[in-house]
Structures are given as C-alpha cells and as structure tokens.
Amino acid sequence: MEFKNPYYSILTIALLFAYLSRHFQWFKKPEFFTAKNARNTFDYLRHLKGLLGLLGLALIGFSLTQPRVPLGFSENTIKVNDIFMVVDVSRSMLAEDFKPNRLVAAKEKIRDFLKMRPTDRIGIVMFSEKAFTLLPLSTDLDLIEKIVDEINTGFLGSGTNIGDALGLAVGRATQSLAENKIVVLLTDGVSNVGNMTPLQAAEQARDQGVKVYTIGIGQRSNAALLRTSGSRYQRIPGGSVDLETLEKISKITGGKSFYAGNEAALEEVLNEIQQLEKTEIKASSKVIYKELYWSYLLWGVVIFLFSELLGFVVFREVF
C-alpha cells in the first residue's frame, strides 16, 4: 500500500487532538457534579461516544491520504520512427543552381518534411570535414524548427566527411527504443576525409538495424558558387555527387537512393520518404492503482455521524 497525499496525516493528528480536547474538556473546569451511579452510566456511554467519534475521524483522516495499491503498469503504444537527418554543410552547398542556393533550399524542404512527422523523434547531424550532432533525438517541433535554421556552413572545416557523419548518426540511433531507425543522408559531394569510409559506416548501420536513405543533390551541369571574397563567382563541376557510393550505402542498409537535380525533385524525394511505415514502441510508465480511500471515507463518515447522534440524543449536546 502507498499514499498519494501522506502529508494529510499531519492534519489528521491535529483533528484527533482537537476532538479529544473537546470530548474530555481538557481546558474547561466542571461546573456541577452528578451522583456517582449516574456518572458511571454516563461515563461508559460518553467513552463509547468518544471512541466512536475518534475512530470515525481517524478513518476520515486516513482516507484523505488517499491509500492505494499499485496493480501494475499499463502499456501505451506510440507510433513512431526515429529519424536522423544528416546534412552536408560543405561550401559547395552554397552553389546557386538551387534558389537561393542548395543549402537554403534543402533546409526549406527538410523543414516541410519534418512538419509531416509530428509523432516521430528527430535528430540532426551536419558535416563537412568534421561531423557534429546539432540535435539529439527530440519530439519538440518548435525546437526542431529552430535547429533547422542553425544548419549552416563555415565552422566544420573544408571537405566532405560522409563516413564519420553517417557513423555518428548510427551511433546515436542505436540508443533509441524504436524498431524503425532511419537516417536520411543529404549531400552534393564525394567523401574525401574522415576516419571511417561511407561503406564501413553503412555496414555498421546494417548491423545496428538502421536503414539509410541517401539523397544526392545538385544539377548535372556546372553550378555557380560565390567566391569567399564575395565579389566574383566560380564554377564547380556539375554532377559531382558520388551517386554510386550513395547507391551502395542504401543497398547495404535496406534503404533507397535518390537524386534531386532541383528543388521540385528534392521535394518529391522527401515526400516519397515520408511514406515510410510507422512502427510502435511500448511506453510502460503509467502505473495503474486500486484506490482504497472511498471505503475508509464512507465508514469514517457513518461512524462519526453515529457518534454525534449519540451525543445529541443521550447527552443533549448542541453545537
């Protein structure tokens, strides 16, 4: 047995003390005395009345603490996927073949995609030369939308480290409870740095039951990229994304590979991934109780009222 409101026991003790004080008139001097034989009879009845009143109040006070017995746990099922968005933030993602550029367009489509997944847990990893967890798994839609705005270039070095980024997302995903763990990898380049190759990371994902969907973006023709000086453009080769490796990653993990040459194609790709089947996890955090307070309250009120009725009928007590 446990108690939902144990602090009410203090109030119960105070009520019992007040009742005993009134019953025995501890702070009142007697004004007259009756004959001894009459006192004996009345004393027995008065003690009975006091005992019943005390018992009734004790039961009422005990009910206020809300005694209950835990019966077990209820199993709630929640439909959910755990999805990590792994986003390339190398400088080439600023190419302007997408409007206004690849990264801004990708962020807009990712934001739309995530709005359609309100029951899923979302994590975000971004990478260039280094990989960084921008957001661990979360269901806070407002926070997720704000974090998407923080996906930017400039502080993770130069280069494209697909292997370590994918490995980081897989490592995060393995801590999840969901059966369906997914990585959506979006890049416009070829992996050229890192401790882990993309295929090694894909094998790790397969071993951990993580499905990887890959998206290569960028036009097949040359794209304009503003120079670091900010005054002139340079041309970067079109079709530089390593579609062959992305295809192998998806095949190893049981996912699917896509290519998006413009904003509309990227939206279509994310809409297709949106059709992923949801799975269920069990949340056993809710305890079911058998509440006992009602019977104690009922008996307490009945006994106390009988005690007061006895005082009114026998002793002519008026309140």
Write the layout of secondary structure elements.
Layout: E1 2-3, H1 8-24, H2 36-64, E2 67-80, E3 82-88, H3 102-115, E4 121-127, E5 131-138, H4 141-149, H5 162-173, E6 181-187, H6 198-207, E7 210-217, E8 223-226, E9 233-236, H7 243-253, E10 257-260, H8 263-274, E11 279-291, H9 293-315
Parallel strand pairs: 3-4, 3-6, 6-7, 7-10
Antiparallel strand pairs: 1-2, 2-11, 4-5, 8-9
Helix pairs in contact: 1-2, 2-9, 3-4, 3-8, 5-6, 6-7
Structural features, described:
- This protein is of the alpha/beta class.
- It folds into 2 domains: 2-71 and 287-315, no CATH class; 82-277, Rossmann fold (3-Layer(aba) Sandwich).
- 43% of the residues lie in helices and 24% in strands.
- β3, α3 (102-115) and β4 (121-127) form a beta-alpha-beta unit.
- It is rod-shaped and about 110 Å long.
- The two termini are 37 Å apart.
- The model has no long low-confidence stretch (mean pLDDT 82).
> Helicity, in percent?
40-55%
Beta-strand percent range: 15-25%
Shape: rod-shaped
Assigned CATH class of the largest domain: Alpha Beta
Radius of gyration using CA atoms only: 36 Å
- Tell me about the largest β-sheet: 6 strands, mixed
For the secondary structure, the number of strands is 11
**Please, how many domains?**
2
Question: What is the CATH superfamily classification of the largest domain?
Answer: von Willebrand factor, type A domain
The name CATH uses for the topology of the largest domain is Rossmann fold
The number of helical segments is 9
Q: What is the residue-averaged pLDDT?
A: 82
CATH architecture label name of the largest domain: 3-Layer(aba) Sandwich
Terminal residue distance: 37 Å
Spatial strand arrangement across the major sheet: 5-4-3-6-7-10
